[in-house]
Sequence to fold (179 residues):
Amino acid sequence: MERSRTTTKAKIPAARKSQTARIDVQVAARYRTKVKPAFLRRAAQATLVQQRVQAGVELTIVITGNAQLRSLNRTFRDVDAPTDVLSFATDERLRPDAVYLGDVIISYPQAREQAKVGGHAVQAELQLLVVHGVLHLLGHDHYTEAEKNVMWKAQAAVLKKLGTALLTEPQVGQSQRKR
Fold:
């Protein structure tokens, strides 16, 4: 399958200090005791700040299982396998003062496995996947080495700011943005 190389930045209102982004976190019932939504919001907010987008935006983070990610991956990427994170970007205006950036959908089982392989906590892996997904919503890609370098540098800066301890270099290999 050929991947679209279109990278467009969302038209995002200038940040105002008095507002913050609206970040909705939805966690499937079976993972609610294992996921800390505040950590995910913090990762998304830190990404927006690092990218100089602090206000007038909304996004949703969904934590679910492999079956849903596999279904979405099959439907939108023609790949019949689960993946760690998918981002569905939009620049829809829900209200005059806010742009809806889109959805970041994460597989908890994939995050758990990647954390185990990487030797770090699942919460750290989830934060990495949120940062990665939000960067995709903002127009970043990693199709070329140059794009990957820019995106990975931004990821590293956000993770450092968060104090997220990853023992190995992040491997977000299968994640893709869907426009």
In short: The chain has one domain: 22-166.
